[in-house]
Design brief:
Layout: E1 16-18, H1 19-26, H2 30-38, E2 45-47, E3 50-54, H3 55-64, H4 71-78
Antiparallel strand pairs: 1-3, 2-3
Length: 79
């Protein structure tokens, strides 16, 4: 029995983007994106050699490495 996708279910799909979109948004290369996948930094889904990422996973990665303000930055601004 096949499952019918309802219009409300499509809202979940807006969270998925492909590699090209990720590279453009983050200004990274194919190799960088491949490294992130290989090292487990960025989860992904692969269908017929096309790779998709959740926007929420990309934002989580950015938030994980977010540096609000470092002490070195504070020292430079006082000189």
């Amino acid at each position: 029995m096949t499952e019918i996708i309802q219009p409300d279910d499509l809202n979940e799909w807006t969270d998925w983007i492909d590699s090209q979109d990720v590279m453009q948004k983050l200004h990274v290369s194919v190799r960088t994106l491949q490294s992130w996948r290989t090292n487990g930094l960025l989860p992904y889904s692969r269908i017929n050699n096309k790779i998709y990422y959740r926007k929420s996973d990309i934002l989580a990665l950015l938030n994980k490495y977010y540096i609000a303000r470092r002490e070195a930055d504070d020292d430079e601004s006082t000189q």
